[in-house]
Design a protein that fits this description.
Probable acetyltransferase. Helix content is about 40%, strand content about 15%. By secondary structure, it is α+β, with helices and mostly antiparallel strands.
C-alpha cells in the first residue's frame, strides 16, 4: 500500500487518452464480482429446484449420475456469462455497453471537482496533471487521426460522465455518473480505487466531491447500485450516509417514479442493491 496525500489529488473529467487506463482500473477493481453474482444466483432456492428438475430429466437419458448433475450447472453458468450485462455489478450502470468515448468527449475542457483537503491542509492546490507521453508509433497515430471518433452532444449526455483522480500524473481511481438523469435525480456508477491506494480515503473523496458538484447543479437525491454480494460496497456507502432503499427512514411519500429498481437477471433475481442519499 502506498501512502496517498489526498490534498495533492486532482479530480478531473476523463479524457479520451485515459480510456484504456480507466478500463484497466475498473477491471482490476471488479475481479471476481461477476463470479460472485453467478454463485449468488445458483444458490437461490428456485434456481436449485430448477437445476434439480433438469438433472432428474437428464438422468433418464444419461447413464452417469454425475454428468446429469454437472451438465445443467455448466450450461447455466455459460448462459449467465453471455447474457448477464457486463455493466451489472461491474460498472454499476444499467447501460449494456459503457460509452467511454462519449463520456470523455468534454474531458478536454479540464473540468475538475473541488478537493476540500487542499483547503484544509493550507497547501497550494496541485498543478494540473501533465499529459502522459504517447508511445504509439507515428504510423499508428496517423491512422488514428485519419479516422477520428465522432461524438455529438446527445451521445455524450447519454453516456454520462467519468471522473478520474490523478496524483503526480498517475490515475489512481475513478467515479462515474450515469447519463439520462431524471430531474433532480442522479445515479452514481462504479467507484474504483487502484489496489495500491485503497483504505486511504480516496473513494470517499471521489464520491463526496461528485455529490457536492451535483448538489450545486440542482440535484436533491443520488442513487448508487451495489452488487448484491458486495459487503464491502454496502459498508462503504452506509458510512457515507446512504441508506438501503426501503429501509426505515426512507420517505414513503415519494412518488413511485423517484424510486430506483434493482437490476435483475436470470429468473428475475436481484443482482444489485439500491442505496439512496438525500442531498441537503
Amino acid at each position: 500500500m502506498v501512502k496517498l496525500e489526498l490534498d495533492q489529488v486532482v479530480m478531473r473529467r476523463m479524457r479520451e487518452d485515459d480510456i484504456e487506463t480507466v478500463k484497466a482500473i475498473i477491471k482490476e477493481g471488479c475481479q471476481g464480482t461477476e463470479n460472485r453474482l453467478i454463485l449468488h444466483i445458483l444458490t437461490r432456492p428456485v434456481c436449485l429446484l430448477l437445476l434439480a428438475t433438469v438433472s432428474s430429466v437428464l438422468r433418464c437419458f444419461l447413464h452417469s449420475f454425475i454428468l446429469a448433475l454437472i451438465i445443467p450447472v455448466f450450461l447455466l453458468i455459460v448462459y449467465l456469462k453471455f447474457t448477464m450485462p457486463r455493466s451489472t455489478g461491474v460498472l454499476g450502470t444499467s447501460r449494456p455497453y459503457w460509452d467511454y468515448v462519449g463520456s470523455s468527449y468534454r474531458g478536454a475542457q479540464n473540468e475538475t471537482l473541488p478537493n476540500p483537503y487542499s483547503r484544509i491542509s493550507g497547501k497550494p492546490p496541485p498543478a494540473k496533471d501533465k499529459a502522459r507521453r504517447r508511445t504509439k508509433p507515428k504510423a499508428e497515430d496517423k491512422d488514428k487521426d485519419s479516422s477520428p471518433e465522432i461524438v455529438d452532444v446527445e451521445r455524450e449526455k447519454a453516456a454520462g460522465q467519468v471522473w478520474v483522480a490523478v496524483c503526480e500524473g498517475e490515475i489512481v481511481g475513478c467515479v462515474s455518473r450515469e447519463g439520462d438523469c431524471r430531474l433532480e435525480m442522479r445515479r452514481f456508477c462504479r467507484v474504483v480505487v487502484g489496489c495500491w491506494y485503497r483504505r486511504e480515503g480516496l473513494g470517499r473523496l471521489l464520491v463526496q466531491s461528485l455529490e457536492q458538484r451535483e448538489r450545486q447543479t440542482g440535484a436533491r437525491r443520488v442513487y448508487a447500485h451495489v452488487p448484491y454480494p458486495s459487503a464491502v460496497g454496502e459498508a462503504f456507502f452506509r458510512k457515507l450516509g446512504y441508506r438501503l432503499q426501503g429501509e426505515v427512514g426512507y420517505d414513503g411519500e415519494e412518488e413511485e417514479e423517484d424510486e430506483e429498481q434493482p437490476e435483475r437477471t436470470f429468473l428475475g433475481f436481484h443482482v444489485t442493491k439500491v442505496f439512496v442519499k438525500d442531498l441537503k
